[in-house]
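Recall that a protein's primary structure is simply its ordered list of amino acids. Everything else, from secondary elements to tertiary packing, is in principle encoded there. The following example makes that idea concrete.
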Amino acid sequence: MNTRRKRRGDALSFLEKTTGGPLTFSKLIEAIRLGEEMSQAEFARTLGVSRAHLCDIEKGRRFVSPEKGAEFARILGYSEERFIKLVLQDQLRRARLDYKIEIEAT
């Protein structure tokens, strides 16, 4: 297993161990960044956003579209489905709609 893939797994393990609530897109992005041992500025450059924008995403003050979630997944080498699912689930949670998202690629 290459080092980058190992660190990705470490980031997801870190997230699962440290979050007590449901997995959110913001928690996932922050955990990946921490697992990659990157500063917000460096990670923001990787994603093509400003450091302030990334900070707002990580803190749940700013949300991304499903398209942007898919783009982040491609950039980081993760599953687009997982990222899109979390983005959509977050939208439902914010709207206080008690539904669970299940998606499948066509």
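Residues 3-94 form a domain with the 434 Repressor (Amino-terminal Domain) fold (CATH 1.10.260.40). The radius of gyration is 13 Å.
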